[in-house]
Design goal:
Length: 319
């Protein structure tokens, strides 16, 4: 491993510590009380609320609570939810399969579709394929996911009654019929997310390809007699994918953090909906676990992107 990557890894540690400190400070100083549901309940006496507050450590200053949280997190203990008193990791573990089944598949579909479409759109610039792909990308990029989701619900669920619009989290796949039911209920949320991600990646891939196609090294490769497919695949595509890799590295962590709006529309019990519920209840341990995990993934995927830069472009060296 080069010294550059070692420095990046060492720099990531204080970066993540600073991120965790800022997140915890903002959540602790934000208005709201995690025990507000007890305050509205006359059956819970004030002394009981104070005992609960002391048991949760909410009677201590937030810097002390941050140090305790950081120490527990470093030992693999994410704490307990203020609302359900369930271990935070157990809550997240229950939501991960739903998030990966919807957001993860949608992201893979977007990658498989977007990069070839973007490459072909640039190579066949101003052709019918390019016009169709560009129009699709503009529409997918401009239309928000909540509008696309509602449109699919109205057309496919309400009008034609082809697909269910509420995700059944209790469904367990054990035969072909339940597998078909799982696929049917996943089609619309996957389609909504895949359309948006595909549109974004198509635009970036096409723009990067068009920037590299007129370059001198492309003309030189053609002048040497290389086949057009070899010029495109071995030279133009590899250089064009560098900015695309950056975008993928920044958006890939969303696969694990969930899709906030889409999960709310289709009632997908994923990590995104858990985050929304935790914010509404001011459940700091759950919010910290999800947001800090997302921060770790962003830093990690940026390190992966640095490695991929050197693979795609031999001129990039970190020695």
């Amino acid at each position: 491993m080069s010294r550059y990557l070692v420095r990046r890894i060492l720099l990531a540690i204080p970066t993540l510590l600073l991120i965790s400190f800022v997140l915890f400070a903002i959540l602790s100083l934000a208005p709201g009380d995690p025990l507000s549901q007890f305050a509205a309940n006359p059956a819970v006496p004030p002394e009981v609320r104070e005992n609960i507050r002391r048991a949760l450590g909410l009677d201590q200053p937030w810097p002390i609570r941050y140090v305790k949280w950081l120490w527990s997190m470093m030992h693999g203990d994410w704490g307990f939810s203020f609302g359900s008193r369930v271990a935070v990791w157990d809550l997240i573990k229950l939501r991960i399969p739903s998030t990966l089944a919807v957001v993860g598949i949608a992201y893979v579909v977007a990658l498989v579709l977007a990069i070839p479409i973007g490459i072909l759109s640039a190579v066949k610039q101003y052709s019918m394929f390019d016009h169709v792909a560009t129009t699709f990308a503009f529409m997918g990029f401009s239309v928000p996911t909540f509008f696309t989701g509602l449109l699919l619900i109205i057309v496919l669920s309400v009008k034609f009654q082809l697909l269910p619009f509420i995700y059944d989290s209790t469904l367990q796949v054990h035969d072909l019929s339940t597998l078909g039911a799982q696929i049917r209920q996943s089609i619309m949320p996957i389609t909504v997310l895949a359309l948006f991600q595909t549109a974004v990646l198509v635009r970036y891939t096409r723009a990067s390809m068009l920037e590299n196609l007129p370059q001198d090294y492309v003309r030189t490769a053609r002048a040497k007699g290389l086949a057009e497919s070899s010029v495109i695949n071995r030279h133009v595509v590899r250089n064009s994918l560098i900015p695309v890799i950056t975008l993928i590295a920044l958006t890939a962590p969303t696969v694990f953090s969930g899709a906030l709006i889409t999960e709310q529309i289709f009632r997908v019990p994923g990590i995104g909906s858990l985050l929304i519920t935790s914010i509404q209840n001011n459940d700091i341990p759950v919010i910290m676990a999800i947001t800090f995990t997302f921060s770790i993934l962003v830093v990690l995927f940026n390190l992966v992107a640095d490695v991929l830069y050197g693979v795609l472009d031999p001129r990039i060296r970190y020695d």
